[in-house]
Amino acid sequence: MHKSQLSLDRSEAVRLVRGLFPSFTESEVTAVESTGTVNYLYRAGTRTAVRFPMHGGDAHEVRAVLLAEHAAMLEFAAASTVPSPLPVAIGDPGRDYPLPWSVQTWIEGEIATPGSVASSTSFALDVAALIGSLRQADTKGRSFSGEGRGGELTAHDGWIAHCLQRSEGLLPVDRLRRAWGSFRSLPRLGDDVMCHKDLIPGNVILRDGRLAGILDTGGFGPADPALDLVAAWHMLDFPRRETLRTSLAIGDLEWRRGAAWAYQQAIGLVWYYAESNPTMSALGRSTLIRLLTDPILGL
């Protein structure tokens, strides 16, 4: 999926996992089909997940990132309304794989899709409860790091322009350009709150149509309060978006900033993953359709 992506075959993954946990047999270490774009995912036994970074240069820097992720995972778990992975260990590089890697607990359930629970009021209320709980977590005096989504919308102008250029022939670019023009100038209100920062379907676990777990919690940290509202356009139809909004008592400006962050995340998915990860490309497309057809946003 990425030009700098490292390769990892199953034999090396098995060798690394069994080196750290000799009690696992070879057959208990299995690759997991995933739409993830950052890590190779394996399962070791029934209770453990193993994530091998797909790219990264310096092993010491990657280890520092993993340690920070493990700390964030513990913070998230303490604030979450549903189970999330807990850190278990960090593995060392191997003969044919040059980076440290992360071992976490496994969360059982079904991965959400953009449409699987789109019309579920119960699910919308579950997500609202999660976001509300995360917002109450202590920032401990921290503020947005300045990297990625969650700061100023205008910081992403260059990326949006690049994505729009690459999306010619794939998406209604003129209309999307006008949409970003209306989004980018939305003013920021309110202090940073704690956010998951990536509430997409692939990070959402379902059981019997209800929210049962959240994955990829290592980025938990302070950001724009509107950031986690992206879940509304990634996973919910219009009536259920209104359910979530009402439950959280979100005002018009913050709601529109949430839509802007959903746009910023989705606009790069369609063209970038068109061939290498069709599921992620389809997510971007479905989110943009929801944004463009949202009767409240009026895009």
Write up what this structure looks like.
- With 299 residues, the protein is α+β, with helices and mostly antiparallel strands.
- It is 40% helix and 14% strand.
- The protein has helices at residues 10-20, 59-79, 121-135, 157-166, 173-183, 230-235, 238-248, 252-266, 269-272, 278-292; strands at 29-31, 39-44, 48-53, 87-91, 101-105, 110-111, 193-195, 204-207, 210-214, 221-223.
- Strands 1-2-3-5-4 form a five-stranded antiparallel sheet, sandwiched between helices.
- Helix 3 runs parallel beside helix 7 (238-248), helix 4 (157-166) runs antiparallel to helix 5 and helix 8 runs antiparallel to helix 10 (278-292).
- The radius of gyration is 19 Å and the shape is globular.
Number of domains: 2
Mean pLDDT level: 95
Specify the CATH class of the largest domain: Alpha Beta
What structural class do helix, strand and pairing data support?
Answer: alpha+beta
What is the fold's blueprint, element by element?
Blueprint: H1 10-20, E1 29-31, E2 39-44, E3 48-53, H2 59-79, E4 87-91, E5 101-105, E6 110-111, H3 121-135, H4 157-166, H5 173-183, E7 193-195, E8 204-207, E9 210-214, E10 221-223, H6 230-235, H7 238-248, H8 252-266, H9 269-272, H10 278-292
